[in-house]
Design goal:
The complex is a heterodimer.
Chain A lengths: L2 E5 L3 H13 L4 E5 L12 H6 L14 H4 L2 E4 L4 E5 L4 E4 L4 E3 L2 E4 L3 E3 L12 E3 L3 H10 L5 E5 L3 H12 L3 E6 L11 H13 L2 E5 L3 E6 L3 E6 L4 E3 L2 E4 L3 E3 L2 H5 L8 E2 L11 E3 L4 E5 L4 E3 L4 H15 L12 E6 L2 E7 L10 E8 L4 E8 L2 E8 L5 H9 L18 H4 L12
Parallel strand pairs in A: 1-2, 1-7, 2-3, 7-19, 9-16, 10-11, 10-16, 11-12, 18-20
Antiparallel strand pairs in A: 4-5, 5-6, 8-17, 13-14, 14-15, 20-21, 22-23, 23-26, 24-25, 25-26
Chain B lengths: L1 E5 L9 H9 L6 H4 L11 E5 L2 E5 L8 H5 L5 E4 L4 E4 L9 H5 L6 E3 L4 E3 L11 H5 L5 E5 L1
Antiparallel strand pairs in B: 1-8, 2-3, 4-5, 6-7
The chains are: A alpha/beta, B alpha+beta.
The structure holds flavin-adenine dinucleotide.
The site of flavin-adenine dinucleotide has 37 residues of chain A, from helix 1, helix 2, helix 5, helix 8 and strand 22.
Chain lengths: 421, 144
């Protein structure tokens, strides 16, 4: 009987299990994870910390999922090595597991910033439910929190802590918040919204030192100013967990290099999710798009291919939607034209008073990016134009119109229309 | 399995379907009372206009739903028995991933309640409310 082995019990791993079980009900499926228990929605840990989501609503699938899908789950078990010749993995407890087909969906880990004094009580990263629970239990008595980093995870942590009534200060090294997702106009609108809800955003400063006596007392900024605080959350991005693959001789760059079937360079080994580096449809180059949606779709495609399917994964794309204090945000593909890049054009509309901003980026007759703030209606249609590489010449000037939507692109999509008769 | 279809040549864009949809999803189910409800009920479908035609837009309950894959809270699920994409309000955090991923633009944010607005085919009724509301017979409810 065929043995499937999946390292990682999260978005990519679960979605691979579901894809495998669709085609193959009888083979053995084993999932190993070094986290505890059943899979949970990692992106919800900020909502959990904020008190928006109850602990029992954070699980990604019901507890019965593993039994119903006939999956053997080893949680709290860390894989330490892959022997690609013997088709075997070794775990920290010295046990070994063999495979006919292996998926590496080990995700990513939070980067711990290299700052003096970082290893003190009261300093946290924000990646796992245990991180969120750790922060939660440290809250009594905390008045002020500093968040290091103005990326999405930092901002979500800041939102959660603000909802818990703390004074929150976000320390952002670069010139704007959300620099991976937004341009400076959009970032400005979001920053204003955060500030109007009492979050202080400090731009262009870095933490030079975390001051304390084993317990955090203050953060010293690069301009030597000190901010008194007893909680620090580092949101300095993530790095893909590629160590296992690298040590096994599998081809890696920033992530594990995935081909269009999500195979790695080693036989019978696939990869998916935050750990993988895939062809990016908007960039036209390989990139790690460490996003929930990408992990799910890559997990699905890899699972189908592991169980004998022949699906082509056309590629990933940076895409994200979120909301801060009732300000919705969507970012698709390229969000700013790189200096000196040829052949791109952009257009935008801004209603600063109502915090509404829409921008699109085109390359010739193809949409390659969009940023939407305040009004995110029809963002799925724009995403479709990017992902399906639909020629937009027929409606290029209408893309930013309030009423631009699916009806306008019906004749340009490949699929046959069934709903309109 | 019955599906909603739209005969676009018959659609005049009067938006009666939108109004009836909003009322059908209100707490009272009554037009005049619905207007006074604390949380105003919004339509789950919209009529859009392009190239001389009107196109009523509503959730198609795709069999490979992109919104379900994108839902980072596992609030959206495909119910294989009912053949419907169903939404669990108690899990939804209003992150709008579903809106970003719907290839038809058939999900809208309810900014106040923080839930995505989608056609549920009036699950608890015999047939979708918009069916009878259409004065020209542009809405069809037929077996696939
Ligand atoms: C606070 C927060 C907010 C986020 N918000 C968004 C958002 O709005 N939108 C979005 O798209 N994404 C968001 N993300 C990112 C999203 O959570 C990730 O992209 C997604 O979880 C990736 O899934 P994955 O399965 O690839 O990996 P992960 O979720 O990282 O899971 C990896 C799994 O592998 C296991 N593992 C790793 N190494 C080993 C080993 N050696 N042995 C055994 N097990 C191992 C881990 O225990 C874990 O179970 C957010 C993340 C955080 C933390």
């Amino acid at each position: 009987m065929k043995q499937y082995l999946i390292i990682g019990n999260s978005a990519a791993g679960i979605s691979a299990v579901e894809a495998i079980r669709k085609d193959d009900k009888s083979s053995k499926v084993t999932v190993v994870s070094d986290e505890e228990g059943q899979a949970y929605c990692r992106c919800l840990i900020s909502y959990y910390l904020a008190g928006d989501v109850r602990a029992d609503k954070i699980f990604y699938r019901p507890e019965s999922f593993y039994r119903e899908n006939n999956v053997q789950l080893f949680s709290n078990k860390r894989v330490t090595g892959i022997d690609v010749k013997k088709n075997l993995v070794t775990c920290a407890d010295n046990s070994q597991l063999n495979y006919d087909s292996l998926l590496i969906s080990t995700g990513a880990s939070a980067i711990v910033p290299d700052v003096k004094g970082i290893n003190q009580k009261g300093v946290f990263v924000f990646r796992t439910i245990n991180d969120a629970k750790g922060i939660e239990s440290s809250l009594p008595g905390v008045k002020t929190a500093c968040v290091l980093g103005g990326g999405l995870v930092g901002l979500k942590a800041a939102y959660a802590l603000r909802k818990r009534k703390l004074d929150v200060k976000i320390i952002v090294k670069s010139k704007q918040i959300l620099s991976q997702m937004l341009d400076n106009v959009a970032a400005g609108l979001v920053q204003k919204r955060l500030e109007s809800y009492g979050i202080e955003v400090i731009i262009g400063q870095d933490a030079a030192e975390i001051i304390g006596d084993g317990k955090v007392k203050a953060v010293k900024l690069t301009d030597n100013k000190e901010i008194q605080c007893s909680l620090v959350v580092a949101g300095r991005g993530v790095s893909p967990n590629i160590d296992l693959a690298k040590a096994a001789g599998i081809k890696v760059n920033k992530g594990i290099i995935a081909d269009s079937a999500l195979r790695t360079s080693a036989a019978n080994i696939f990869c998916a999710g935050d750990v993988s580096e895939t062809y990016d449809l908007a960039l036209g180059d390989f990139a790690v798009n460490a996003l929930w949606t990408m992990a799910v779709e890559q997990g699905k495609a890899s699972g189908m291919n592991m169980s004998g399917g022949k699906v082509d994964y056309p590629g990933s794309i940076g895409m994200n939607a979120t909301e801060f204090f009732s300000l919705p945000i969507v970012s698709l593909g390229i969000n700013k034209i790189k200096e000196g890049a040829q052949g791109y054009e952009q257009s935008q509309t801004l209603d600063a008073k109502n915090s509404i901003y829409k921008k699109i980026i085109l390359k010739g007759n193809f949409l390659v990016g969009a940023v939407l703030i305040g009004n995110i209606k029809n963002s799925g249609v724009l995403l479709r134009l990017i992902r399906e590489r639909i020629n937009v010449s027929l409606f290029k000037d209408e893309l930013l119109d309030e009423n631009f939507g699916f009806a306008r692109i019906i004749d340009s999509v490949k699929e046959r229309e069934r709903i309109y008769v | 399995m019955k599906q909603l279809y739209y005969k676009i040549k018959k659609c005049l864009g009067c938006k009666s379907c939108e109004i009836v949809c909003a009322v059908a999803h209100s707490a009272s189910g009554d037009l005049f009372k619905a207007l006074k409800e604390e949380v105003l009920s919004l339509p789950r479908k919209k009529v859009s206009f392009a190239k001389g035609n009107n196109y009523p837009l509503s959730c198609r309950h795709c069999q490979e739903p992109k919104c379900v894959d994108a839902c980072m809270a596992a609030a959206l699920k495909y119910d294989t028995e009912k053949k419907l994409v169903v939404h669990d309000k108690t899990r939804c955090v209003g992150c709008w991933m579903c809106i970003m991923s719907c290839p038809y633009g058939a999900i809208w944010p309810d900014a106040k309640v923080k839930i995505p607005l989608r056609c549920d085919k009036c699950q608890d009724k015999e047939e979708p409310s918009c069916l009878k509301a259409c004065p020209t017979g542009a809405v069809a409810w037929e077996e696939v």
